[in-house]
Amino acid sequence: MKIGQSIRSHGIAVACGVLATAGLIGCDNPGVTSTPDDIEISETSGTVKVAAEKADKKDASETDSDQADSKDNKDSKMSEKEKEDSVDQKVKFVFDYNSLNAKAAYVILRKGTEPPGPGGYTMTKDAGTYICRQCNAALYKSEAKFESHCGWPSFDDEIDGAVKRQTDADGYRVEIICNNCGGHLGHVFEGENFTEKNTRHCVNSISMKFIPKGKPIPPKLVVDKQAAKEANQKRTATESEPVQQDKD
Ligand SMILES: [Zn+2]
């Protein structure tokens, strides 16, 4: 990877400036910096509650019946769109997300940009799922990936609910962040007519991790110290129950 070199040599600024001027791309502005505090805890905790409820429901249904009929019922209620978007991913409550190296932290936490080029996942065409490097949330399916020749991985659709859009710090572009952890992904552009969906998610490779089709997708990490504590206590209590019964 040449990120560090390019950062030091201001290669990003040159590349973005040239390509953006040519109207070819709209990449991140490397001049925009922010602190890890930009990871919005309040929004994340909102997600946590929903995720916790979903996880509880899923656990309950799995406990009540591990047969396929409940799954069939669920499937029959799902629309074609939902089926297309659904990704089998468990939720895990943790105290912290995956640790990031300096290059990943620069992009994901400080909203930096990788230099454009054929590296990373730009040219990847394998079938599979792209997950968030920081929290493992499934973000994009390979079916949505297309060749835009902009130098970054491009997708014309996200997995339902996985990506949040917000106005970029520059005031005009639309920044995309992981809806679970708030990590910076890149920007989204519309009206370029690359694909029928007319949308281009321009995503930094280092913000993602590719899971080839057939390989298990790791659980989505949800940072909730209270929930993690309660889950641990619950597990401890459950494990100690048989011992107490034996004593009686
Ligand atoms: Zn994430």
TrEMBL record:
Pfam family, one: SelR
EC number(s) stated in the UniProt entry for this protein: 1.8.4.12
Entry keyword set: Metal-binding, Oxidoreductase, Zinc
Domain MsrB: 93-213
Entry keyword annotation includes Zinc: yes
GO molecular function, one term: peptide-methionine (R)-S-oxide reductase activity
Catalytic reactions on record: L-methionyl-[protein] + [thioredoxin]-disulfide + H2O = L-methionyl-(R)-S-oxide-[protein] + [thioredoxin]-dithiol
Leader sequence segment: none
Biased segments, Basic and acidic residues type: 51-61, 68-84
Region (Disordered), start-end ranges: 32-84, 226-248
Listed cofactors: Zn(2+)
Protein name: peptide-methionine (R)-S-oxide reductase
Organism whose genome encodes this protein: Roseiconus lacunae
